[in-house]
Design a protein that fits this description.
Elements (H helix, E strand, L loop, with lengths): L2 H4 L1 E7 L6 H21 L4 E7 L5 E3 L5 E3 L2 E2 L7 E7 L12 H7 L7 E7 L2 H7 L7 E2 L6 H7 L4 E2 L5 E4 L2 E4 L4 H14 L1 H10 L25 H11 L7 H7 L4 H12 L3 H19 L4 H7 L5 H12 L3 H8 L8 H6 L3 E2 L2 E2 L1
Parallel strand pairs: 1-2, 1-6, 2-5, 6-7, 7-11, 8-9
Antiparallel strand pairs: 3-4, 10-11, 12-13
């Protein structure tokens, strides 16, 4: 038996100006799976090829590290089992150097590649090649709005760590490439092998694809946007009863006009915006303080514990207690609680 020919060929394209983990994470998953399969089951696993998108085979990571790949993507002429695009180079100066790569990518289809995946900004690369039209995909939460705008035919869901639609697989940022790769190993060789790989990497196998990325619920608005103008005032009054008429009054606008302008400039009704502001503030308390959940619910206007829990599940797909356990900061003794509860106090003085 020719072990190399029987292996599933995994080609990972390392895009320039990206994080090392974008490609190193998936590479380590498949390589370790291959080792486990050979040692435990004595079967062929994966042939992992790290390739550059340019003919010179050199990639410069965001850290400045130069990576000299053994192959250029154009060297790959035989069928591929799994193609993964790790990241994307958004610099205008790189467009010309990728021309040959995109010509190669345009020829990828189900007849020569069983499975196509992306990590983080790699979704943009696949979208540019027309491979994501009509497909449900995810990407890093900070890039999701840009992906929607530049490629309106792509169905973007930024909440997922990873997802798949047919033979198209996509993952969010950085470590989620490991999540996706573990899911692929489980799909190919079963859960037991995937668990062994996860243990080897000291990584979770059970982080589900539908779990939210925990990105900001609200985008960064321009200074002239009505949401930006009212957001600071809202943060100071979250513990109070807030409704559209009160928001409109603060802006010296009629309720009807305020609602119309707000929805036009933010794409959401005022009530939904208020709820997201409340959740964002609660997240900050959970990350940076030891304040009780009851007190946080009160401070943020989220009602009682049951109400806050339901709101968190709706927006973040996790509970407040689980969120605190995952994202608790080391700043708990830095006096940050007083600053959060009393934002007008700094270094003991009123400002």
């Amino acid at each position: 038996m020719n072990i190399k020919e029987d292996r599933k060929k995994v080609v990972i394209v390392v895009m320039t100006a990206n994080m090392l983990l974008d490609f190193a994470g998936p590479s380590d998953v498949f390589t370790n799976a291959n080792n486990i399969l050979q040692s435990v089951q004595g079967v062929a696993g994966y042939e992992v090829l790290i390739v550059a998108p340019t003919a010179n085979r050199k990639v410069v990571a965001a850290t400045g590290v130069e990576i000299h790949c053994p192959y250029s993507v154009m060297d790959i002429t035989t069928p591929i089992d799994t193609l993964i695009i790790a990241g994307n180079d958004f610099r205008e100066s790189s467009v010309e150097s990728f021309r040959e790569f995109y010509q190669w990518l345009s020829k990828i289809n189900v007849s020569n590649t069983r499975r196509i995946g992306s990590v983080c900004g790699g979704a943009f690369t696949l979208a540019k090649a027309g491979l994501l039209d009509g497909k449900k995909v995810t990407t890093h939460w900070d890039l999701s709005e840009r992906l929607k705008k530049e490629y309106p035919l792509v169905q973007v869901n930024a909440n997922h760590f990873f997802t798949n639609d047919g033979n198209i697989y996509s993952s969010a940022g950085v470590s989620s490439g490991i999540d996706l790769s573990l899911a692929m190993v489980e799909e190919d060789f079963g859960k037991d092998v995937a668990i062994r790989v996860a243990r080897k990497l000291v990584f979770y196998l059970s982080r589900p694809g539908f779990q939210t990325q925990f990105g900001n619920l609200l985008p960064v608005y321009e200074s002239e946007n009505i949401a930006k103008k009212i957001q600071n005032w809202l943060n100071e009054h979250l513990h109070e009863s807030l409704d559209v008429s009160r928001m409109a009054g603060h802006m010296n606008m009629s309720t009807r006009n305020f609602t119309r302008v707000f929805h036009k400039e933010t794409g959401m009704p005022p009530a939904k915006f208020i709820e997201k502001v409340r959740v964002e503030k609660a997240r900050k308390y959970l990350e940076d303080t030891d304040i009780s959940l009851e007190r946080i619910a009160e401070q943020c206007g989220l009602g009682n514990l049951v109400s806050m829990r339901r709101t968190f599940l709706r927006h973040l797909m996790t509970t407040p207690s689980d969120y605190r356990r995952v994202f608790r900061t080391a700043l708990k003794d830095a006096g940050i609680e007083d600053l959060l509860i009393h934002p007008g106090i700094e270094d003991g003085n009123t400002v």
